[in-house]
Write a structure and sequence with these properties.
The protein is α+β, with helices and mostly antiparallel strands. Helices cover 36% and strands 21% of the residues. Strand 1, helix 1 and strand 2 (39-44) form a beta-alpha-beta unit. Bound molecules: FE2/S2 (inorganic) cluster.
Length: 85
């Protein structure tokens, strides 16, 4: 049973500005925490928010400017912290 959904913008702007690396970080995080069965990981097309990207939506909440500085904190808070959407 999937408990969370992560949608990563794979539009060319977000992808080239960081979501390519972020995707690997997310995959590693899911596998390290045994979350692969609990989290549905999807890609989206450009969400029209390129200027604020790279963008990742987790359980319907949009996170902007996601990168090495904040991605782990976001993943921990949303997937491990029991924060409901
Ligand atoms: S490429 Fe991600 S919002 Fe446009």
């Amino acid at each position: 049973m999937r408990q969370h959904t992560i949608v990563m913008c794979m539009g060319s702007s977000c992808f080239s500005r960081g979501n390519q690396e972020n995707l690997q970080v997310v995959k590693d995080f899911l596998s390290e925490n045994g979350l692969e069965e609990k989290v549905l990981l999807k890609g989206s097309r450009c969400e029209g928010e390129c200027l604020r990207g790279p963008n990742i939506t987790i359980d319907g909440k949009l996170f902007n400017g996601v990168g090495p500085d904040n991605i782990l904190e976001i993943l921990k808070k949303t997937l491990l912290g029991g924060v409901s959407s």
